Fold this sequence. Notes:
Helices cover 36% and strands 26% of the residues. It is of the alpha+beta class. The radius of gyration is 20 Å and the shape is elongated. The site of zinc ion has 8 residues, from loops. Zinc ion binds at residues 153, 155-156, 158, 174-175, 177-178.
Amino acid sequence: MSLSTNGLIIRVNNVKEYDRFISVLTETNGVIRAYVHGARSVKNKNAAATALLTYSNLTLERKKDTYVLKEAAAEKVFFGLQNDIFKLTLAQHFCELSDVLAPENTDSKEYLRLILNSISYLENDKRPQKLIKAITELRMLSISGYAPNLVACSGCAKFEDDVMYFDTQNGELLCEECKIADRNIIPINKSVLSAMRHIAFSDFSSLYNFTISESSQEMLADVVERFLLSQVEHKFSVLQFYKNL
Length: 245
Ligand SMILES: [Zn+2]
């Protein structure tokens, strides 16, 4: 069975002398794995289009659980990432995120749109890196079944306060009166709370458009990352590398 789709190359493993095994976040079939014969030989016509972080049109042949690549043409290469280790590493973290969180064998346009937009914002410095990171992580968690409950305090339904508490374990909000001291809770200010609500629930068209001070960005990035790590059992190795840069 043959499949033709667009997708972003999110993982590349070298196999044998000249081959590659790639993971692709596709528009139509979630994350798929595909074998690419001869991709590392200089003359191979599929080499560039199957490189990491390339958005390509792919024609694949299904072989049991995996695919074999027949043909690939690059549609978009993010050249602006190449000379900046911070941007490149963060883009690779987004790849790892979608490798872990995006579904298989189902429509995944929402994931692809999110990651392509985030990488483009990153490439062109449209928003600060830590903000793009928080947006991408929290939005991807929200669409993949880890949406936090941010409507109100889960104890007394208080909508907001100067300081509220986010419980990273249970993904819920608590107020000063309802917080339980021994739980894994992080204090957040009003603007972090409203940013989190926006990222989790806004229309995609306005996802990246909100204002937040630099100090609140710091708090936002921290609480979202801790939420991610407490919800998803996975060793995010690229994230560790990014934090050590
Ligand atoms: Zn309360």
